[in-house]
Write a structure and sequence with these properties.
The chain is an alpha+beta fold and 453 residues long. It is built from 10 helices and 24 strands. It has helices spanning 100-103, 113-118, 151-154, 159-172, 194-198, 201-208, 222-227, 251-269, 293-307, 330-345; strands spanning 9-10, 20-22, 26-33, 39-44, 50-54, 59-65, 70-78, 82-98, 122-129, 146-149, 176-182, 238-242, 275-278, 311-314, 357-364, 367-373, 378-379, 388-391, 397-399, 401-405, 408-412, 421-424, 435-436, 445-446.
């Protein structure tokens, strides 16, 4: 809802016409008034209750219980004047963030773009796009508007977020609100509070190594301040995240910085919400020095899945494009994110939501037997199983042969008679071919903790 700049009572942009509030929660309604100690009253059309608070130094805030999914509703905010919010839905709200593969819209590159755009008539899905802006200090508000999902709005919105939201709406039958706060090219550090990065000597040193860019921010906290902090009062169901490519040059620090992002966001929201993320796709990086920088990012992402609770990881090594860092198959990315949410957040039964994930291994003479979670039976698709390497104590990896044994894989190489470690899909451009029965791909992994490449 656009308010006059002379309005005497005003709300943040996220609280506006067409918005979606999280169902069965305590939604915070907040804003400002030019009368510093004014009494503010809020009424809604989903209840007869009246909610009242008093502004302090011009700022006011209160919590309003929300019902089960439904709408549309009206919210009235009354003081010395009245602000009316119309066409408000109650449903599921997700914060969608990261770099370009989250930001990318259908108009920038999408399989079957015209067909998908024309079919995007979902009035109970709502979009909020956060304007790209960096700030040295934490902001209370940002520009943006809620929009109803239709072809004219979907074509400029995040493709991944849209397909994620469409899958939730289709399966759950409730309104879905999607907040797209992403900026192509950004490393993880700008999305974390500056004080937190600078309090850790290792992370501070790594952040200083990131190359300066004209097109996107690199300094810690600069997007957190302007593109995350303004929404901390807004109740969300969870977060989806697609980022990592821009941290390849300091991949070792991602083992610490990525889990830290999740922890600090949850602390800031005071909510241990689910955090589902996408493992970066294979790509032929022209600036690669070792052809393994992205592999270490994927490994850090896998490590986060295993060590941080209430997280989920989508593997994309089968739907990437070695010559396009922005793969156009965003449909499967969004759907795979939704599988995690449907199974783990919404409790939908009988859904396979993860591909095979490394569980453990046994060394048996010259061979290594690898076991997996999320894999009652493994398949290699239409190709011979590949992308395995093994090494001995010299830490030199050799291509290995591999054979599926039910839900395990046996790996060996004549070059390594006494293996100690195995890796799978551990290069920037690896195209692994290991799947479970549901056709979901196995994550790249390594069994060693060697820092060398």
């Amino acid at each position: 809802m656009c308010l006059s700049v002379n309005a005497k009572i005003w709300l943040p942009s996220i609280l506006s016409d067409h918005m979606v509030l999280q169902q069965q929660s305590e939604a915070t309604i907040w804003g400002w008034t030019t009368q510093s100690a004014e009494t503010i009253t809020i009424t809604t059309t989903w209840t007869d209750s009246i909610y009242t608070t008093k502004a302090y130094q011009g700022k006011w805030s209160l919590k309003v219980p929300t019902p089960k999914a439904g709408g549309p509703y009206i919210i009235a905010v009354k003081g010395h004047e009245t602000v009316i919010l119309k066409d408000v839905l109650i449903g599921e709200v997700w914060f969608c963030s990261g770099q370009s593969n989250m930001e990318w819209s259908p108009l920038k590159g999408l399989e079957n773009a015209e067909q998908e755009i024309n079919a995007a008539h979902y009035p109970k899905i709502r979009f909020f796009t956060v304007n790209k802006k960096k700030a040295a200090y934490k902001q209370d508000d940002t520009n943006g508007d809620w929009e109803v999902c239709m072809p004219e709005t979907m074509k400029n919105f995040s493709s991944v977020a849209y397909f994620f939201g469409r899958e939730l709406y289709t399966k759950l039958g409730v309104p879905v609100g999607l907040i797209n706060s992403s900026w192509g090219g950004t490393p993880v550090e700008p999305w974390i509070e500056k004080e937190i990065i600078e309090s850790d000597p290792d992370l501070k040193r790594s952040a200083e190594q990131i190359t300066d860019q004209v097109w996107w921010p690199r300094d810690p906290g600069t997007t957190y301040n302007s593109m995350v902090h303004p929404f901390l009062n807004f109740t969300i169901a969870g977060t989806i995240w697609y980022q990592g490519e821009s941290n390849r040059g300091i991949a070792n620090s991602y083992y610490k910085s990525f889990p830290l992002l999740i922890k600090t966001w949850r602390n800031a929201w005071h909510n241990d919400f689910p955090f589902y993320f996408v493992q970066i796709a294979p790509f032929k990086y022209g600036d690669s020095k070792t052809n393994r920088e992205a592999a270490f990012i994927r490994d850090a992402q896998l490590n986060t899945l295993k060590t941080v609770s209430n997280t989920g990881m989508v593997v994309t090594n089968d739907i990437g494009d070695l010559n396009n860092i922005h793969p156009t198959n965003k449909q499967d990315v969004g759907k795979r994110l939704a599988l995690w949410a449907l199974a783990k957040t919404y409790g939908v039964k009988e859904i396979d939501y993860s591909g095979p994930v490394y569980k453990g291994h046994q060394i048996r003479g010259s061979r290594i037997l690898v076991s997996f979670d999320y894999a009652e039976k493994l398949t290699a698709g239409e190709r011979t199983i590949s992308s395995f390497e093994i090494a001995g104590n010299d830490k030199v990896f050799y291509p290995a042969k591999a054979e599926i044994k039910g839900n395990k894989v046996q790996v060996w190489s004549k070059e390594v008679p006494n293996p100690v470690s195995v890796r799978f899909g551990f290069t920037n451009d690896a195209l692994p071919d290991l799947f479970n029965e549901s056709g979901l791909p196995a994550s790249a992994f390594r069994t060693d903790n060697w820092k060398s490449n």
